[in-house]
Amino acid sequence: TLTNVISFSEMCKAQGLKPGARTLRIDLVTPSREDSELLQLKPESQLLLLERLRYADERPITIERLKFPESFFFLMEEDLTNTSLYDILSKHHIYPMASSKELDIVAASYKESKYLNIAKNHPLLRIISLVKTADHLPLHLSEQLCNMDRFKFYV
User: What's this model's pTM, rounded to 2 decimal places?
Assistant: First the structure.
């Protein structure tokens, strides 16, 4: 269902594909008011913004943009190349359990088209998620831009 949390790595493995990842950006940013509300942040808090290009059998499939509260700044010290982010979180006893998702179709920007090796304005499935822990606390926000020509996404 749309509330399940399935990692990109799990989806790849279910399809007999090798998952991969390359970090495009990791940075501290000021959250928007909406991000602050969704993640239940304290005033003056910052977010960890993580952007990665995800691969299946070495082919670029999706761009993911993740926003984490300050308590996840430890991710800046982790090697996120070709690694499941949820595997890293589980080493810290953090487990995503549920999410709410919004899906739509968007046109690839020039920059996104270059990362995904597709034409500008190519249609991409956009999945926006608020991921929560078992205690129903916000874990992170996620935006995935997915090239559906090359991959089956399970939501």
Answer: 0.87
Separation of alpha carbons 116 and 108, rounded Å: 9
Please measure the distance between the N-terminal and C-terminal CA atoms of the chain and give it in whole angstroms. Answer: 6
State how far the Cα of 3 lies from the Cα of 5, in Å rounded to an integer.
7
What was the pLDDT predicted at 1?
41
Contacts of 107 (CB under 8 A, 6+ apart): 120, 121, 122, 123, 124
- Residue found by looking up tokens 């190519």 in the block: 122
Neighbours of 131 (CB within 10 A): 19
Sign of CA dihedral 87, 35, 144, 113: negative
Determine contact, residues 126/105, Cβ cutoff 8 Å. Answer: yes
Residue whose token pair is 């046109």: 107
